[in-house]
Amino acid sequence: MISIQNSFSFHKGDKIVLGCSTGPDSMALLDMLLKIREKYQLCLIVAHVNHNIRKQSAQEEKFLREYCSLHRVYFETMTIEEYGDDNFHNEARNIRYQFFESIVRKYEAIYLMTAHHGDDLIETILMRIVRGSNLNGYSGFKKIVDMDGYQIVRPLISFTKEELKEYDHQNQVPYFIDHSNEKDTYTRNRYRKYVLPFLKEEEKDVHLKFLKFSNTLNDSCKFIDKVTKSAIKRCIIDDKIVIDKFLEEDEFIQKEILYSFLKNFYQDDLILIGDRHIEIILKLISSRRANSFVNLPNDVIAAKNYNFFTITKEIDQIASYEIEFDQYVELPNHHSIKKVSSIDHNSNDMCRLNSRELTLPLIVRTRRMGDRIAVKGLNGVKKVKDIFIDKKIFLDARDSWPIVLDSQGNVVWIPGIKKSKFDKKSTEEYDIILKYN
Length: 437
Hints:
By secondary structure, the protein is α+β, with helices and mostly antiparallel strands.
């Protein structure tokens, strides 16, 4: 008889969130937890995601809600209303884990358990070998993953799907079958239908061989991680890779640094990132272009800004703005411009103006193509774009940077960067003082 007590150490009073789909795997895990609930005084919370792509989904949700009510288990659910990603499995997984984490936080649980089993591990390892990864990626997924304040635990990793189905039959555990898992449309299904049966014919306990392979790679990764962490200290400052320092590292360690960086966004699901992505990033870093970026899966952006390289989660671009200035304005880039009565310095963070030389009111807006400024002390005008480049302002900052103009469209000041011919010395005539914070 399968028992998870032999594969995981439970403690009295543990709060456990179980990601449950009503499939044979997760229903088996739920039943196992129910069997030991009283012994360990467990608090169980079932988290279910209705993917809303099959007619059966509503029936499954209703069944699970009633099943949890019958067994006095907390039940939390959400329905995915629409999908925007071309990769359904990808997007669905991201939504699931975001939801699961929100439930973990809500109940202050210490474990999120999922019913991933030995067959899942084989499929993941094979897919990553074919796709390309690093040693950590080739190891598949771990039994226990440390998250921020909780752990993801996969206690069924040493069992096969057939063993879990047999458990359900022996214990009369009800479950649903998702027939979309039989379609050849999805990559994982093809491995499941055609590759796994062959491997199991060769070796009935092949899942344990893959588990040993995974554990061996994980042990190797522990050593490599030590070397990589040392390299990270040398070439990463404030979550930015210093490119000239990075390029001094061995090429293998360079790739490990990038995978370590990417893991912050993909956690243990590095199947989304393959050799092709790493090569694209390395090419970007080594290019002569001062500012450039590439898009990665799940709305992640890898960007080069002069001698720095960053990886960030894409957010909606700050919309262009145009604000009529009076006394004070709060800006989307978390800075502000205000009118002051006096100032004791003469930096680019302040500007003195004579209203008689301008057409009021003043306007604060984002840059536009073709913007030019008559730079103070310089004959003629200069493109605002060129000034940003000269000052090495990062690409993402340029689009939200404020520019101050009069109502005739004359650029009078680029706060913090450059003054125009309209700026006055303290000994000249002026009646407006602006300060940029």
